[in-house]
Amino acid sequence: MRVQHDIVIIGAGIAGMRAAIAAAEKSDRLSIAIIAKTYPIRCHSVCAEGGTAAVLREGDSFDLHAWDTVKGSDFLADQDAVEFFVRECPKEIIRLDNWGCPWSRNDDGTIAQRPFGGHSFNRATYAKDRTGFHEVHTLYERMLMYDSVVIYPEYFVTNLVIEDGSVQGVSAIELKTGNMTFFEAKAVIFTTGGAGRLYGFTTYSHQVTGDGLAIAYRNGIPLKDMEFFQFHPTGLIPSGILMTEGCRGEGGYLLNKNGERFMKKYAPEKMEIAPRDVVSRAMWTEIIEGRGLEGEYGPYIALDLRHLGEEKIEERLPLIRDAAIKFAGVDPVEEPIPVKPVAHYTMGGIHTNVKCETAVKGFFAAGECACVSIHGANRLGSNSTAECLVFGKVAGEMAAEYALKAKQGKISREFMNKEESRIYDELLGKSGDESPYEIKRELNSTMDKNMWIFREEKGLKEAVKKIEELKERYKNIEINDRTRGFNTDLMMAIEIGYMLDLAEVVAIGALKRQESRGAHYRLDYPKRDDENWLKHTLAYYTPEGPKFDYIPVMITKWEPVERKY
Amino acid sequence: MAEFRVRRFDGKKSYWQTFNVPAKKGMTVLEGLYYIKENLDSSLAFRASCRMGICGSCAMRINGKPRLACETQILFLGDRITVEPLDNFTVIKDLVTDFEGFFAKHKAIKPYLIREDVKYDEPRELLQTPKELNEYYIFTLCIKCGACYSVCPAAATLDGYLGPAAMTAAYRFCADSRDKGKKERYEIVSSSNGVWRCHLAMECSEVCPKNVEPAKAVQLLRRRTAFSILKSLLGW
Question: Among all residues of chain B, which has the CA nearest to that of A177?
Fold first, then answer.
């Protein structure tokens, strides 16, 4: 089936829905489609907990937010993008307020803010510890006001169509029927999220498999800085569910088996609210050196909130309490929560400029799937939901401007036939003796072992070899469910193929980067090396594996200095 | 080992299938379903996303009661578990049900702030005290999982009935101090498919995984719409 819209947005999380609203507000002459493999409010953005950064109050400043972000990024962020970003954040917070977001409030009725890691001002705006959830619902409900926005829930995008250097549309499987739909558009925006399910121990929702990244990459668009993967210090054991940085922002302690607040050794000034890379490394060091507590799932660190008291925990961290009770059998009012560092955020992504443009005309990307880059080598907590809002809006507006002038995209019959045959004959119809799920399990354990918080040449080489082996085996998979309607077996098999490509980019990118910067820490190269590595990685797809190129980092005001907390 | 009895549907016929899942302490029903999909029968269809009780994807009938599979521990249920799709929804495949109508009802009650200053070129912070926030906050916690709708006797007998989740959303916005759209929404919820159709069975509140109390929202809406009708009758 062929469907036409002016703008097609893939992904219905914070960035996607913000883009849809921005485009709809820009012009009511535009028809906008928002396509997602889940229902919009089932997106991973609902899992964001602690806050959204913005300069709102006296004493804070754009320069301070920008400096914190640049320093947090270990100087790999593009400073022009960061300066633009921090100025837009407050407007987004207030827009969400005007659209109904139930922000937590101060007694005088103003929007409340709290401390967050790496920020030198209390600028994390929050809605209890369900910030992402409330932002998503606010945006979704606001989006319903616009008749020009058509929602296509549960459509799984399989490819991007580019002809003569400009975008023509996308192909997608309508899950309900299993039929392929071809969306022709003047502009396409990817807001498909990160790739966190590459890892086994992860905070990510099940569907975050990096589809958009892989599709863009396979279509010749480079991925930037993919070796930088963030580990959040506090993942609940055993599930990996996020225990928000707000826990520490509100005054929670991290303790080793001797009951020591060990962060005083690693970040004496910031202690538990140092940036995530610093805290994760500190925790992992404590565990490796035998000072973790022992539990049935291996060593862990205690996140102690007891001294905050029941009232404060209920008021500020109700979701955390509920999740700790339900998923770990621990009530944080009475006992410390068992945690360890967990894969949490994809700093890299589709290479875009500050206007969310890519190398392909009419193709834009925003949110976690994009790399603008404002997070560099390490994202500060509460800057990600802010990024999705700010750059979601930019992408929506840019796509709208472009679509108002561009001609309608066209998808050729030839492409349609080829894509249908690729999915239904080559994948679904094929017999083989490999289970895609076994391949995923092995990929997950390779990532958890060799591409974790500490990396070194031997492990990374092992990982590259393993991924190549898994890619070979993937050619021989069999999908058991041969039916069409709601075939999640087919969808997951395709996702696993995407993940293999991305894992290869992460592994080889990490192997090549012979320095330690932000979340990428090489035991064999423990120092940051600005002389050789103050540059972004670009990975280009070739059938033989990724080819790499490097581009300079944009420095405006802040020369790199040593990072101390 | 836990025995999973799963009610399956292939588009034409419905049947039961039994799987043995090695269950250990802490393992959830959702993890059990993934175990089946990845090891025993990959054709099993179900929805899941966040696995932390906040996205609303995985509501299903587990041992006869609607629950979120992701936050239901296998061992709390014993070693025999039945899993079925939600009631009051059309089944698409296995545990996957059609939510189109459910979301359309949510949209129908205008679930957004209605204000005159609808365009916000220069957004301005609106003040709202913690007390005003608490007037509606509990009702913002609805994750639209459909558990309430699946046990609603009014929804079972009347297709067009708005249902507990949509009416909770209606009340949530009416009770927000920033909203000016009460009258429009009262008209919608006091229609023949609205609050007066509720049987006051209260089951929605009982099964809500987020303790939202949709029944209370319906009660409060009834009181407000009745008062609003009275006011217009008396010309106040």
Answer: B92
Question: Is A203 within 8 Å of A47 (Cβ atoms)?
Answer: yes
Q: Tell me the CA distances in angstroms from B100 to A156, A159, B89, one per residue in order.
A: 17, 25, 10
Confidence at residue A511, expressed as pLDDT on a 0 to 100 scale: 98
- Residue A535: strand, helix, or coil: strand
CA distances (Å), A129 to each of A312, A542, B131, in order? 12, 43, 18
Which of the residues A25, A136, A137 would you substitute to probe the B interface, choosing the one with the greatest number of B C-beta atoms within 10 Å? A137
pLDDT digits (tens, 9 = 90+) for A406-430: 999 999 999 999 999 999 999 998 8
Residue A299 confidence (pLDDT): 97
* Catalytic position from the list A123, A232, A344, A522: A232
Considering the candidates A18, A123, A248, A522, report the single residue annotated as catalytic: A248
Find the CB nearest B176 among A46, A100, A435.
A100
What residue has token string 């799937």? A369
Q: Which of B208, B130, B102 is nearest to A111 (CA)?
A: B130
Is B17 within 8 Å of chain A by CB?
no
Is A232 a catalytic site residue? Answer: yes
Determine the average pLDDT of the residues in B33-43. 98
Q: Distances in Å between the alpha carbon of A16 and those of A40, A405, B122?
A: 9, 22, 22
Looking at residue A381, the DSSP 8-state letter turns out to be T
Residues of A with Cβ-Cβ distance to B45 under 8 angstroms? 486-488
**B158/A contact by beta carbon, under 8 A:** no
The list of chain A residues with pLDDT below 50 reads none
The DSSP letter of residue A262 is T
DSSP state of A170: E
- The contacts of residue B115 (CB under 8 Å, 6+ apart) are A98, B178, B179, B180, B181
Nearest-CA distance A537 → chain B (Å)? 31
pLDDT tens across B205-215, in order? 999 999 999 99
Dump pLDDT digits (tens) for B87-98.
Answer: 999 999 999 999
Residue B120 in contact with partner chain A when CB distance is under 8 A:
yes
pLDDT at B121 over 90: no
Dihedral of CA atoms A210, A216, A220, A223 in degrees, nearest 10, equals -50
- Per-residue DSSP letter, B40: I
- Residue B178 near residue B216, CB atoms below 8 Å: no
Residue B192 sits at the chain A interface (C-beta within 8 Å): no
A379 is catalytic: no
pTM: 0.97
Please give the mean pLDDT across all residues of chain B: 94
Residues 215 to 234 of B: which have CB under 8 A from any A CB? none
The ipTM, to two decimals, is 0.97
Q: How far apart are CA A48 and CA A46, in angstroms?
A: 6
CB A52 within 8 A of CB A131: yes
Whose structure tokens read 């521990």? B73
